[in-house]
Each structure stands twice: as C-alpha cells, then as structure tokens.
Amino acid sequence: MSDDIEIDVDALKRRMDGAMTALKTEFASLRTGRASASILEPVMVDAYGAMMPLNQCGTVNVPEPRMITVTVWDKGLIGAVEKAIRNSGLGINPVGDGMTIRLPIPELNEERRQDLAKVAGNYAEQARVAVRNVRRDGMDQVKKAKNNGMGEDDQKIWSEEIQTMTDTAIENIDKALEAKQAEIMQV
C-alpha cells in the first residue's frame, strides 16, 4: 500500500460501529412484553426548567418480570416524571405510590408483536443504509486517492478492505435483528 496516500479505515470502522450502537439503542426502546430498564432510556422529563433523561431524576429498577419502578429523588418531580412517561408513546400507564412510580408492563398480543417486529426491521434497514453510506464515503476516498496517484493494486486492496468491513457490519445488523425479532415474538 502506498505510504503517502492513506484511507482512514479507522474512521470508517468507527462510523459503521456507530450505526450498530444506534441500532442497539433503538432496539432497547422496543417493548417485548418483559420489563427492562432500557425501555425508559429515551424518556425525557421537564425538570428544573430543562429536559433531562429520566435516569437523572430517579432510580429505575425492575423488581418483577412485568414491573418497572422509578424512585424519584425530588418529590416535586413526581408529577413531571409521570407526565413524561405517559407522553412518551411507550403505552405504559404510570401508577404513583409516594416517591415511587410503578409501571406495570402489559402482555403483548400477537398483532402488536408483529407490529414491533416490523418496527425492528425498519430500524435495522436504517442501520444498513447508514453502513452503506459509510461504504460509499470510503469508496469515494479510494477514488480520490486514485486520482492523486494511488496504484491500481492499492486501490483494489483498499476497496476490498472497505467491502469486507461493510459485509461484516451488515451481517452483525442482520444477526441483531434476528435476535430481536425472536425476542419480540417469544410468548
């Protein structure tokens, strides 16, 4: 490979890994009928005049398979936390109990499971598109390097390396999707 012309493969790898991380975050927000503290990660609470993540307003616990509890640290925020959970679109109705808010997780019916599996598929497709965009950027770098004097052998080596990274990233996305859909469809 040419010494004076470099393709930033590490940056491409980081961006592909970022797509996978974003996908895992999206998957964590999907309810599977079982309680998981990660369900509440995207919930933002209007606290002290600013939007704050729920986990910065209280402690989130999973004491039972179908129950999440949030112990709010400031008594004045209980109403705001309940409102944020209700408005989050998670389909969970909070029940206040002093400083603790209980979130019973209802069973999912078959139709809802299929809808969630489709949503998971859409998240995975967005991640695949992100990885393909990173691949395109990498191939553009290779083309620019060719125009700046990179040899054909080096160009082929870089192109193959970028394609291998892309194939691996998409394979990992497909595995994550398969696992999440199996989790969602599990009764």
TrEMBL record:
Top-level division of the source organism's lineage: Bacteria
Lineage of origin: Bacteria, Pseudomonadati, Pseudomonadota, Alphaproteobacteria, Rhodobacterales
Described function: Responsible for the release of ribosomes from messenger RNA at the termination of protein biosynthesis. May increase the efficiency of translation by recycling ribosomes from one round of translation to another.
Database matches in Pfam families: RRF
GO molecular function, one term: ribosomal large subunit binding
Family annotation (SUPFAM superfamilies): Ribosome recycling factor, RRF
UniProt family annotation: Belongs to the RRF family.
Protein localization: Cytoplasm
Aminoacyl-tRNA synthetase is among the record's keywords: no
The keyword Protein biosynthesis appears for this protein: yes
Organism in which the protein naturally occurs: Neptunicoccus cionae
Domain Ribosome recycling factor: 23-185
CDD domains: RRF
Identification of the protein by name: Ribosome-recycling factor
Cellular component terms (Gene Ontology): cytosol
Listed GO biological process terms: cytoplasmic translational termination
Record's keyword terms, sorted: Cytoplasm, Protein biosynthesis
